[in-house]
Amino acid sequence: MQICVAKFLRNHFARLVTAFAATAVLTAVALPIQSQAQELNFGKPGDPVKLVVGHPCCYTEVWSIMVLRGKELWKKYLPAGSTVDFEIGLQGSTIVNSMLAGKQHIGYIGDLPAIVSTTKFPQADIRIVAPVGVSFDQCNILLVRADAPQFKNTSEAMKWLAGKQFAVPKGACSDLFSKEAFAKAKAEPAAYLNQNVEVITSGLRAGKLDGAAIWEPVAARLITEGLARRIGSGASYNLKDSSYVMMRAELIKQRPDVVNAWLNAELDAQLYLADEKNSGELIKMVMQQTTGFSERSLWNAMYATYPEAQGGTKVRMTLPFTFTPEVMELLHNGTAFLNSIKAINTDKLRPDAVMPQFAEQILKERKLKSPIGEVEALPSSAYTGK
Fold it and tell me: Within this chain, do residues 119 and 255 fall inside the same structural domain, yes or no?
């Protein structure tokens, strides 16, 4: 299904807000299913399986799913006769709700909605099975309006934002980042507005907003279109974010062979992302699966090199694949943040929320170590598209 992002956003973003509160190892895995809903049936190991996979329309940190889908890598590993339907959600909470309802079985989402999904086990049991990406500046990007003064560095820009109009989709990774960034800068905007991507775009265009925090590739599009300038990122404050592969617990319990197959395909996709030679083909693949973004803005979202004064970093994304201490710390910090804003009623992940054994075993079998690769920033001359 090809989703026209621009049309999709115009028709639907105005009445949606990003909030998540509304929201041997590979042999049989014994999982207690605590869900009150009817258990889904995925058949027996080795049988063809029908999967529905949800992923965002436009979040760069989970572009491994664009590769997995575009190159049909799943066909190499799933049992013969299996089918996969891909469904695109406006945001992580949309995917979480579909997974909770049993309409989607695997989800690709950012850290905060991933955490929220694991706390809904009275309704459905969802687990985190693998990290997708970790980065300083895929979600954590600070912008100011295009006609703002020129700043020497992020600190100077944040001081300028004090007393100004600032917007962020609350409950999202950029919300967590913004609050920490303002705290570190010892600054506070006059208004900290809860706005979705479409409203932020309109506000910057109309001059009603002075600044915002948003994720890629939306940030790159706003910059490319001349609506905003980048002033900093998570690199400016040593703050990272992350994204994950989620699965229904019934799928894990009944079909460890499918879990193994899917994560092998995911590993292939991440290795593809880490190879600089694939950058041109990747962007064309993403262009085929989304519209509303120029090819250049998509390339910039993943590969552009920004000055250090704007939070630029040599590595745009790290691909750990397994749950490293850094990944676990990000999950724990996200859980505490969600609890602090009353999005969830616990400040700790439940012990079985994260299931690292599948990814760990796959790396061992394929003789790889974490991180399995990085997506490095490239010079502008490396761009060969339109």
Answer: yes
Tens of pLDDT, residues 212-242: 999 999 999 999 999 999 999 999 999 999 9
Whole-angstrom distance, CA of residue 127 vs CA of residue 357: 12
102 and 41 Cβ atoms separated by less than 8 Å: no
Please name the amino acid found at residue 153.
N
Prediction pTM value: 0.89
Domain that residue 196 falls in: 141-237
Given a contact cutoff of 8 angstroms between Cβ atoms, the answer to whether 144 and 150 are in contact is no
Split at pLDDT 50, 70, 90, the class of 23 is very low
State whether 228 and 271 are in the same domain. no
Please say which residue of 215, 237, 259 terminates a domain. 237
Q: Taking each helix axis from N to C terminus, what angle separates 325-340 and 111-118, rounded to the nearest 10 degrees?
A: 70
The number of angstroms, rounded, from the C-alpha of 230 to the middle of its chain's C-alpha atoms is: 20
Distance (Å, whole) CA 307 – CA 313: 8
Same domain membership, residue 193 and residue 208? yes
Burial group, residue 342, by CB count within 10 angstroms (0-12, 13-18, 19+): exposed
What span, in angstroms and rounded, lies between the C-alpha atoms of 245 and 83? Answer: 18
Domains contained in the chain, number: 2
Beta-bridged to residue 84, according to DSSP, are 51
Query: Is-contact 139 173, C-beta < 8 A?
Result: yes
Rounded Cα distance between 341 and 12, Å, is 26
Average pLDDT over residues 192-206: 95
Q: What is the CATH number of the domain that holds 218?
A: 3.40.190.10
**The tokens of 224 are what?**
């490319």
**CB burial of residue 357 (10 Å; 0-12, 13-18, 19+):** middle
* Domain co-membership, 274 together with 374: yes
Burial of 222 (0-12, 13-18, 19+ CB in 10 A): buried
CA distance 228 to 210: 9
Q: Extract the tokens encoding 159.
A: 């001081």
Same domain, 259 and 319: yes
Residues 16 and 89 occupy one common structural domain: yes
